[in-house]
Amino acid sequence: MIVNGGVVRKEDGAGGRYMSEFLKRIVIPRFDSSAGEIKLSDMDDSSDFDDYVFTTDTYVVDPPVFPGGSIGKLAVCGTSNDIAVMGAEPKIMSLSLIIQEGFEIQLLSRILDEMAFWTKKLDISLITGDTKVVNANIGIAINTSGIGVRNASLERNIDVVREYRRYPWKWVRDCGAGEKEVIIVSGRIAEHGVSVLNTREGISFDLEVESDAYPVWLFLRDVLEVGGITAMKDPTRGGLANALNEISEKSGVGMVIHEERIPMLESVRGFCDVLGLDPLAMANEGKVVMIVVEEMADDVLKSLRKAGQKYAEIIGYTTSEHQEVVLETKIGTRKILPPPMADPVPRVC
Predict the structure, then answer these.
(1) Containing domain of residue 293, as a range?
(2) pLDDT digits (tens, 9 = 90+) for 172-210
(3) Domain boundary residue, one of 99, 129, 149
(4) pTM of the predicted structure, to 2 decimals
(5) Sign of the C-alpha dihedral, residues 319, 320, 326, 330?
(6) What is the 3-state secondary structure (H, E, C) of 169-233?
(7) Where are the strands (E) in the chain, listed by range?
């Protein structure tokens, strides 16, 4: 395959439609393959082999320390979250560091201490890695790969789903949503993106907002025991809008989202309004959007709240009446909620 002309743009790695088109046009045609049921071209959060899922991610967040965490915490949470939304338990991780020459050892130590804390919290073994020191103006970049395993909670969830309808997959897939199912988000949105942006730019907003970076497996394992989840994504780059559109497109179902039910801090909403940003497109690093069979939705919501996700909320439902994600606004009108072209805040994860 030969592609003539053009250059890589920052939008091509920023989540949303531009990155999806870039991967489908430039990367995936050269490598598409699978070791299990999930192909590279499926573009799921992880892929599988035998009874394991595997994922990798590179973090370039600027600044590397921000309210609520650091690039180290973000790397552990982000990689483990891509595993967890498949229903797998995160177990093994690698760590590769690319560090700018002159980077402060004290700052590096803080970043690594946070990684150590969260890998221990998750009982993850970090077993291999690599380090490079460069003179490029990058600060620090971190790559983490992770492996997760099948578990009793995942099996329980799939068994419950199959009590209500056919479900052919062995993992929770983002193509697994069906008609007339319920959409739940596990907590308040947009706090990570707002926290990083406010810190980076030194904007004079008196915000008490911290990144929501958190390993979602710590509450998902209990929720999976309740069962009935047919699809999940962690709404990172491109935010809730991008995650909903990915599930909708891959599953072949439409969605109706009630704007007034989406949990969000008023200060976050005000910050985005002033800067002309869409909070539905802002990155999150400790949230899950999930699709649940209707009969189990209330039980799943109760389980989320019992597991500490007190702002979890039912925000809509799937439908066969249309194929788009439709937002029902606070004033009662409806409009299509498209996927963002790219994340509005660069270097947010």
Answers:
(1) 152-336
(2) 999 999 999 999 999 999 999 999 998 887 776 778 899
(3) 149
(4) 0.95
(5) negative
(6) CCCCCCCCCCCCCEEEECCCCCHHHHHHHHHHHCCCCCCCCCCCCCCCHHHHHHHHHHCCEEEEE
(7) 47-49, 52-59, 65-66, 69-70, 89-100, 125-134, 140-149, 182-185, 229-233, 254-258, 289-292, 313-319, 325-328, 334-336
